[in-house]
Design goal:
- The chain is of the alpha/beta class and 652 residues long.
- It has five domains: 75 residues, Winged helix-like DNA-binding domain superfamily/Winged helix DNA-binding domain (Arc Repressor Mutant, subunit A, Orthogonal Bundle); 105 residues, PTS-regulatory domain, PRD, CATH 1.10.1790; 103 residues, Orthogonal Bundle (PTS-regulatory domain, PRD), CATH 1.10.1790; 71 residues, no CATH class; 160 residues, Mannitol-specific EII, Chain A.
- Helix content is 56%, strand content 12%.
- The protein has a four-stranded parallel beta sheet, covered by helices on one side.
- Helix 8 packs across helix 9, helix 11 packs antiparallel against helix 13 and helix 21 runs antiparallel to helix 26.
- InterPro entries: BglG_antiterminators, PRD, PRD_sf, PTrfase/Anion_transptr, PTS_EIIA_type-2_dom, WH-like_DNA-bd_sf.
- Keywords: Repeat.
């Protein structure tokens, strides 16, 4: 657990990219500031004499050596996690099993400690198809080669951060005598080039996961553990991909893969990392021809429902086709329980919560129609499809109106306007040019005033001083001010909405305000949802059925959209009126795979459907800023304090 918390601390610092206080890190990890200091010491020891985390008066900050510290393996030697992985490898390597007492002696631990480690191995086996059998002093894994590889895949993912492909971590999972890391760079490059040459679009996010499976296959075959031939005829596409993998494995890895392995790996490639090429290309036509009409119909229906529920423009034939092809591949992965990792899951959820919510709605519908249970990483791939479609349809964000003040001298003002249009056309729209040296400042009511002369005393932020010949510094300054003005407008709208939705009686301090029976529920999230929901039921906002639907939504995908905020809610907008119940946790509490300090149970009514996007996205935006969260949590001793601090944060 200590190593995992160290890695999580380092991951938080890397994502923030700035100074973070010990108190904020302690809240995020659920530990004390003293523990944070010890974690930083241990992290720096991994890369000594370099420094992965620097400290200062403002807290801690990741350095350029942070990535090396995340990959560092020696500090794990002899730890419970290292023993666990060693134990799994020994169980996988010997079909007759291991002698518990001899293994304990070789690992320099007691038999009781090894028994505890074996219990942890059992915890890894869920969903793999493997079982751990114990007969007196012997323990062995029972299951197919596919199931054993599934366990290796889980072990490797456990070693890697956020699903990213790391050959050093992979070799720790497979053993130091596995296929060398140097071979896989050229292998992956050649594979992408060859697949692209066949007209496929290659998913670089997913291919790292497939290369990991190829590494596992190469290692198992090298140790005399090939997959048996599954039988049946390969499709034309599968045959093409199998030929490529077989030739590259022999040339780059020095391993000859049999037909069973090639069938398995080519299926992984076709279901995880390639998509049809341009319209009319041979791969595109073949993909369209093999699309199951029932899958396409299910996807179209779910997409139409999502578009109506969230008022988003995603019902387009090309989008439905692309998503249906993805879902068909997804169904095959579900059958094999071979889920695809997505390293962008966390950032997609925190940065684009509305898009992720649409993806969760679609995933829920697909689970209902096709019986496909979807983990967060797979939902994130659906979110990428949704986000891509919305980006294609998205109108440019509303431009800010700008007036240029530039005293006339030949065509100087015309040149300046041309420069502004060319350099800032995506941020501002010039609606007027003042060429007088003494303009009537009071009459200029545009969003921005870009002036080459001194603005009036006491001018607001909308007045930006620029040079007659626009410089890069001018451009950056105008863009920054425009961004702040747009954000300020969004948050002012949010403040207006939120003040209508809060009620003093729907405010809890967690966990002390929970009912006794709520704290006994498992998982803990459900107890909090029920406690907050009870306050809204008492106000006549929702019924008990809404609470159950909110819990169902939570089971689909954690609603912890940031490192500090969870927003549980039901997918259907069935509340009598829109309201938000707030729970403040200090210290932080576990939620999903992380920890949060603020829980906002949101109940939306049908009448506020159009406000959903504004409130949902911008509420998450406010709580994505660590300093704002700490300010609100520390001072929100009651509802009045919470609302005052929230409004102060929104108003800047």
């Amino acid at each position: 657990m200590t190593r995992a918390r160290q890695d999580r601390l380092l991951g938080l610092l890397v994502r923030d990219g700035d100074w973070v206080t010990a108190a904020a890190l302690a809240d995020a990890l659920g530990v004390t500031p003293r523990s944070v200091r010890s974690y930083v010491t241990a992290i720096n020891a991994r890369v000594a004499p370099a420094v992965a985390v620097e400290s200062g008066p403002r807290g801690y900050r990741a350095t350029t050596d942070a990535a090396a510290a995340l990959r560092a393996g020696p500090s794990d030697e002899g730890t419970p996690r290292d023993r666990l992985h060693t134990l799994v490898r020994r169980l996988l390597d010997d079909s007759d099993g291991i002698d518990v007492f001899e293994t304990a002696e070789s690992l320099f631990v007691s038999p009781a400690t090894l028994d505890a480690d074996l219990a942890r191995v059992r915890g890894l086996l869920g969903g793999t198809g493997l079982t751990l059998e114990r007969s007196q002093s012997r323990a062995r894994l029972v299951g197919t080669e596919v199931a054993q590889r599934r366990l290796l895949s889980r072990l490797a993912h456990d070693e890697m951060d956020a699903g990213s492909f790391d050959l050093v971590a992979l070799r720790r999972s497979l053993g130091e005598d596995s296929v060398g890391a140097r071979a896989f760079g050229p292998f992956k490059t050649d594979l992408v080039e060859r697949l692209s040459g066949l007209g496929w679009f290659v998913n670089e996010i997913g291919i790292a996961d497939v290369v990991m499976h190829i590494a596992i296959a190469a290692d198992r075959v090298a140790h005399g553990r090939p997959l048996e031939n599954a039988g049946g005829e390969d499709s034309a596409s599968q045959g093409e991909v199998a030929d490529i993998i077989g030739e590259l494995a022999e040339r780059r890895l020095g391993v000859r893969l049999g037909r069973g392995d090639l069938q398995h790996l080519s299926t992984l490639v076709l279901t995880r990392v390639v998509a049809p090429g341009a319209s009319g290309s041979a791969p595109g036509e073949r993909a369209r021809a093999r699309l199951d009409p029932d899958v396409e119909a299910a996807v179209r229906e779910v997409v139409e429902r999502a578009a109506a529920e969230f008022l988003v423009d995603i019902v387009h034939p090309d989008f439905v086709l692309r998503l249906a092809l993805h879902v068909q591949n997804l169904a095959r992965r579900a059958q094999e329980r071979a889920w695809s990792r997505n390293p962008l899951t966390r950032s997609l959820k925190s940065t684009y919560p509305m898009i992720f919510e649409v993806a969760v709605f679609i995933a829920s519908g697909l689970q209902e129609r096709l019986g496909i249970p979807l983990p967060d990483d797979e939902i994130a791939y659906i979110a990428m499809h949704v986000g891509g479609q919305l980006e294609r349809n998205r109108h440019a964000e509303q431009l800010l109106a700008a007036t240029i003040v530039c005293p006339g001298y030949y065509e100087l003002h015309e040149l300046l306007r041309s420069s502004v249009d060319r350099s800032l056309g995506r941020a501002v729209e010039v609606v007027g040019v003042e060429t007088r040296v003494d303009p009537d400042w009071e009459s200029i009511d545009s969003d921005l005033v870009l002036t080459t002369i001194d603005p009036p005393p006491g001018h607001g932020e909308r007045f930006v001083r620029i040079k007659p010949f626009l410089t890069e510094a001018d451009i950056e300054r105008v863009q920054a001010v425009a961004s702040r003005i747009r954000r300020s407008r969004r948050l002012r709208r949010l403040r207006t909405e939120l003040e209508r939705y809060f009620d003093p009686s729907a405010f809890l301090r967690l966990p002390e305000d929970l009912e006794p029976d709520a704290t006994d529920r498992s998982p803990a999230e459900e107890g909090v949802i029920r406690a907050l929901g009870a306050r809204l039921v008492a106000l006549g906002v929702i019924d008990e059925a809404y609470i159950e639907r909110a819990i169902e939504r939570e089971r689909l995908s954690s609603t912890a959209f940031t490192d500090a905020l969870a927003v549980p809610h039901a997918l259907a907008m069935t509340a009598a009126r829109t309201a938000i119940a707030i729970g403040i946790a200090e210290p932080s509490m576990p939620w999903g795979e992380g920890r949060v300090q603020v829980v906002a149970l949101v109940a939306f009514s049908e009448a506020d459907r159009e406000a959903f996007q504004t409130v949902f996205e911008q509420f998450v935006e406010v709580f994505s800023e660590r300093d704002s969260v700490q300010r609100i949590v520390r001072r929100a001793t009651d509802f009045g304090g919470f609302l005052d601090e929230l409004v102060a944060v929104i108003d800047g």
